Sequence to fold (197 residues):
Amino acid sequence: MIVGVLALQGDFAEHINMLTACGVKAVAVRYAAELDGLDGLIIPGGESTAVDKLTDDGSAPIFSAIKEKITQQQLPVYGTCMGSIFLAKDIEGSRQGRLAVMDVKVKRNAFGPQRRSFETDLAIAALGEEPFPAVFIRAPLITECGLGVEILARLNEGIVMARQSNLLVTAFHPEITGDLRVHRYFLDMVEGHKRLC
Ligand code: GLN
Fold:
């Protein structure tokens, strides 16, 4: 199994480390051709407006190549924080570029600025009984989602982990904890998809 991590900007190195710790071959992806042969892709945390600029407002080949892999080949993709914003169909109050493949509406910086970043123990039934140490850094919240979206975790009134078919998003950052469970959950999705192909 080979899983790519979009490495235009943000904390892609931490995701590569987590995948390696899970025993999976991980590669940094910057160009469209590097998507070929991948079994899954992670879009890391970072700054969504910067990624919008780096993908030339959606006109860069890497942008259309990711979108095509998702819509035509159902490539499993996991977006953390900025990655969840980049996958969303709707971003509250913003027209910034996004892949628009996941039927969710997100609110950026929903908890306030950087200094309001926090860590909390989150109940995620899909990962077992032990709470997950979830780190929120200028995190978004999912404020609305379509019928095809499975809600996997909530914090207060907002949705912070969700899945739509082969797409997974978290508003928090498992890659900077030592807990591999979210990455393993995603790798199970990748494995399932690989078996079908
Ligand atoms: N606030 C950032 C954005 O809007 C996301 C922050 C993150 O990925 N940690 O893109």
Q: What stands out?
A: The mean pLDDT is 97. The domain at 2-196 is CATH 3.40.50.880 (Rossmann fold). The CA atoms of residues 120 and 134 lie 5 Å apart. Residues 45-48, 81-82, 85, 108-109, 137-138 surround glutamine (CB under 6 Å).
